[in-house]
Please model this.
Amino acid sequence: MIDEIRVLKIVVKRLESARIPYMITGSIAANFYTTPRMTRDIDIVIEVEEKDAETLFSLFSSDFYVDKNSIRNAIHNKQIFNIIHSEGIVKVDFIIRKDTNYRNLEFKNRRSIVFEGQKIFIVSPEDLILSKLFWARESLSEMQIRDVNNLFKTIHNLDRGYIEKWVHELELDEVYNEVKK
Model:
């Protein structure tokens, strides 16, 4: 059976071959920065336009379950669509990058790392914290708060000024106060 890491590598290679800008985020990204934990899917932010819907469908339709209309709708509405690897039953959530000051900066701050001999782009740890705070606020998920606590415990050179500036601007103060920094 194919695992999440192999699916991640397949997806990244295909995005790069099509020159679609991306960054890994969510729990997979957290696993690069702190104590790994099980995850249910792979979250990837992509920077695409409506004209890219057909390209995305073509990239993955041979070995993933892909719905062309969900791709079009997600791009048009700046939302999420997913694909599922047919063999491994691994879900990949593609998050369409929103065009806000913060989301543009977050994407600009992504980091290039080498993972198992392959270059990949990953969200910065500061922006991962902010995203997990946002998800915690929206979903009321304790798991997101635990991830944020782990990130604060294990990453010692975080730009806390950057985090606190955006916590305030993104109105994440209430959920941020739940975190043991």
About this structure: The beta strands are 22-25, 41-46, 64-65, 80-85, 91-96, 111-115, 118-122.
